[in-house]
Write a structure and sequence with these properties.
Layout lengths: L5 H13 L8 E5 L4 H17 L2 E8 L6 H15 L4 E5 L8 H20 L3 E3 L4 H14 L3 H4 L5 E2 L2 E2 L7 H11 L15 H17 L3 H28 L6 E3 H6 L2 H14 L7 H12 L7 E2 L5 E5 L2 E5 L9 H12 L2
Parallel strand pairs: 1-2, 1-4, 2-3, 4-6
Antiparallel strand pairs: 5-6, 7-10, 8-9, 9-10
Helix pairs in contact: 1-2, 1-7, 2-7, 5-8, 5-9, 9-11, 11-12
Length: about 350
């Protein structure tokens, strides 16, 4: 008797390894768009789950960005139920605009996945990102001039989210669908050159493969793994420095100067975040760094969210954002009357 197709065996093994630490009876959800990657993951997860003593369900996130998206979601739901997944939840989200369309859709999607997992008591949510997706992520980070954390790509695990297919090629997930007789949904956004990731997928990576030879995607993914190890080590070092600072609002400049710049930048970012600052951009970290290593009497650095940082007496002082000033009672009464009169 022959075994399963090699691609099917590979994806099943990846799923099995990803959920091996979960206790019997745990609920696992597959995030499925209906595309080849997530459909292959769902089919293989449905096979693995009963043999691992797990319950396997799915979440379909309807972003509402294309006409007929709800009908697509229902078709995918029907496929997943046929595969034996239960429950299968369709979660409709509203996509904002912050960070551009791709980032906004990702934020909405991840928020929905976490919310459904919490609601259903799921131990993990499996995402179908492949090695090719990881390579694209690294190239996009390079184009933005990102640091090691961004260039380390997507993590195998991030909270409740798990990515079992980061060592699996996209061609293999398509093969799984073909072998198992599955019909993936072709998302038109995946071929829309308005999106940077699509251009990287269809133009940049194939060009690199032609010019540099095969194996570029795998090499980029391998670089991501190595950079993640480095970034984790540096973050751990910086975290121990910040944890040793009482309340995290005053930092000894002399001690900061002794740190390698990569660690110091992380300490400054963590400390600013610890006092309630919003997400820092590179310009904010550069300005904070200047208070330490290029000090010539400059004034405070304004931080996102209303906080600030300043230097005096050999110490870097990080201040919480000021709370909103109480509104005078007469102004509040006038505003309330105006609102009621609308």
């Amino acid at each position: 008797m022959t075994g399963p197709d090699p691609s099917v065996a590979l994806v099943r093994a990846a799923v099995r390894s990803s959920v091996a630490d979960l206790p019997p009876g745990a609920l696992v959800l597959v995030a499925c768009s209906g595309g080849a990657d997530s459909l292959a993951l769902a089919a293989c997860a449905a096979f693995v789950a009963p043999r691992a003593g797990l319950r396997m369900g799915a979440v379909i996130v309807d972003h509402g960005l294309q006409p007929g998206s709800s009908e697509v979601a229902e078709r995918v739901r029907s496929q997943l139920l046929d595969l034996g997944l239960d429950p299968v939840v369709v979660e409709t989200v509203r996509v904002g605009t912050s960070g551009g369309p791709e980032a906004a859709a990702r934020a909405a999607r991840h928020g929905a996945l976490s919310a459904v997992a919490e609601r259903l008591g799921a131990s993990a949510v499996l995402l179908a990102h492949t090695l090719d997706d990881q390579a694209e992520t690294v190239l996009l980070g390079l184009a933005r001039g990102s640091g090691a954390r961004s260039l380390s790509g997507m993590a195998l695990r991030s909270g409740v989210l798990r990515r079992p297919l980061l060592d699996v090629r996209r061609v293999q997930t398509h093969s799984v669908c073909e072998v198992l007789g599955l019909t993936p949904w072709a998302d038109p956004h995946n071929d829309d050159p308005r999106f940077a990731r699509v251009r990287v997928r269809h133009e940049v990576l194939p060009t690199l493969e032609r010019c540099l030879g095969p194996g570029v995607a795998a090499a980029l993914a391998r670089s991501a793994r190595l950079l993640r190890d480095d970034a984790d080590a540096l973050d751990d070092w910086a975290g121990r420095v910040v944890d040793a600072v009482p309340e995290g609002v005053q930092l000894d400049v002399a001690a900061l100067v002794e740190l390698p710049r990569a660690v110091r930048a992380r300490v400054l970012r963590m400390a600013a975040t610890g006092v309630g600052s919003g997400p820092l951009e590179a310009s904010h970290v550069t300005a904070l760094e200047a208070l330490v290593s290029d000090w010539h009497g400059q004034g405070p650095v304004a931080l996102p969210g209303g906080g600030s940082a300043s230097r005096s007496c050999g110490r870097l002082h990080l201040r919480h954002p000021d709370p909103p000033s109480p509104e005078p009672q007469e102004h509040r009464r006038t505003r309330q009357e105006s609102v009621r009169g609308r």
